[in-house]
């Protein structure tokens, strides 16, 4: 028993699992037990653990310049290099980069950049942001307000109205499709609902639509074909910016460089974190297009200081590590590897579609989820989250880390460096845990 307060518990939780070290795709606990990290920590350790090249880079940067900041235009080579690399990499023209420490703070930065931008172009009334149910965008006050999951709202009296947060439906066909509805009809219905919301609020009041290409924490929701095409047609029609939260999907996870590439998204804003440094250091980036930047900085648009920035934003060690990680992704062609290994993993996981407990197997590239249901035919969900939690525990007993999410979906998001044999190991352990969970549920 230590003096820790643990996140996402009722704060009375005591130590559950003490992880002491990691190597490749495995982590080890204080009893010396090995676990295949099937979740890359919290969807982030894409390169796996213990990469010596990254470790060396961090040590070298600490010796050279352990800290400097970016306030007022003071800068350092590691931040400049990272910003330029990101700008060249993302599917946005001449992107400008604001560096931070976490996905949540990148999203808070974007909320402020949006306000600043619309003030600069003389449209301060255009401030509302449409977010989706079951979206996860972080836990700082603004990011938590954008998040569409009740547990992240309860107790906190979040300022939804002050921030102008609007909510629209999630593109989850398996859960929300109506009887007899096709995926295309479902996507059309979601687009119609979005248009109705835009018209009810007034397009002139709406700044942006925020979406994860594939919603992660909300249950690994892969949208139906055509969904983002329809959404983006509406955004263009009503002059609303597309804000792409790539905190999970970025850097190979979906089997391409970004989730935007896999799903045909053309963003004006992008938020990046997690695999940006493969979680070797906390670092994030909020990106806007060169067009947005250009109009903001015109003399006639000047609205004064953008009074925002973090002490550790653009930390030299974090930036040097992130640049090295991006170099390794490219050199080792890890996004292409993720595409190929992702096909293998998804195909192996499809074998569970016949399992009596599994309602849906879904995913893309190296991210997936199995939704556990009480009745396969009717798709009836279990009450509460105990079944998913039990399955997660059984996996852990077998030396596999997965993540049970609300609604009893079990998520998988292994490091991109996982081998075929290790995917087989993951699937075999998961299969055993599923059978044990079924036996537990029947009993
Ligand atoms: N956005 C998405 C899509 C996320 O999945 C997360 C975290 O899981 C965040 C934002 C918040 O990132 P962080 O936990 O680094 O603040």
Automatic annotation (TrEMBL):
It comes from the Bacteria. One of its GO terms (molecular function) is pyridoxal phosphate binding. The keyword Transferase applies. Keywords: Aminotransferase, Pyridoxal phosphate, Transferase. Pfam families: Aminotran_3. Gene3D superfamilies: Aspartate Aminotransferase, domain 1 (3.90.1150.10), Type I PLP-dependent aspartate aminotransferase-like (Major domain) (3.40.640.10). GO terms for biological process: biotin biosynthetic process; gamma-aminobutyric acid metabolic process. InterPro entries: Aminotrans_3 (IPR005814), PyrdxlP-dep_Trfase (IPR015424), PyrdxlP-dep_Trfase_major (IPR015421), PyrdxlP-dep_Trfase_small (IPR015422). NCBIfam families: PRK06105.1. PANTHER family: ADENOSYLMETHIONINE-8-AMINO-7-OXONONANOATE AMINOTRANSFERASE. Belongs to the class-III pyridoxal-phosphate-dependent aminotransferase family. This is Aspartate aminotransferase family protein.
